[in-house]
Amino acid sequence: MKKISKKMQFNLKKTEIKKKYTINSAIEILQSMKPANFIESVDATFILNINSKKSEQNIRGSILLPHGTGKKIKIGVFTTGKNIKIAKKYGADFVGMEDLAVIIKKQTIKFDLIIASPETMNLVGKLGPILGPRGIMPNPKFGTISTDIKKSLKDARKGKINYRNDKNGIIHSNFGKINFSKIQLYENFLTLYNQITLSKPNQLKGIYYKKISISTTMSPGIIIDHLSLQNIVYP
Fold this sequence. Notes:
This protein is an alpha/beta fold. The chain folds into 2 domains: about 130 residues, CATH 3.30.190.20; about 80 residues, Rossmann fold, CATH 3.40.50.790. Helices cover about 30% and strands about 20% of the residues. The protein is globular and about 55 Å long. The termini are far apart. GO terms for molecular function: rRNA binding; structural constituent of ribosome; tRNA binding. One of its GO terms (cellular component) is cytosolic large ribosomal subunit. This is Large ribosomal subunit protein uL1.
């Protein structure tokens, strides 16, 4: 049996496994735990009462978090013409066409986001087997297939995130760093929660959220009392 570290033992004592907490209390508990030797991300897990086999019930979208994610992301841009200079000016880490496709195939650079101009999709579409499983295939719904490369890059650098459920109907999403203030994490979480709530399929009857929890990269999860979120409206 794997031995539990003293740090994990300390952190486990901070929360009761089956107890449900308000989002404010949960954030306070996470920030009181013994930290790792790096600045941990803070993540939310939403277990939804959806049937992911039905396309109309799948949840996906994008949202600009008010305080960003605190994460420096690596962005690749497929584009042509005057947009090449624009992409380089506004923070793309690599701009190209066939040369960028080769980098992605060889995985010599691990990109967190791929943005593409519409005219490049014949090339980008062939990379679907690589980009799709990583959740970074350009999509107009996420603003990553765009004629406005400048806006797409600025939004990405400000903290725009994409969310989508997996095959089990679960959405995993980062919403900040543990060194954010309590109010920054609170507002980021509520912005994400409200957006996912608005994405509820019209065909879905009954409960929407089976379970919501938050955690840091290395901490145990803390269950959120999602009923307590229903009366909170933000922003």
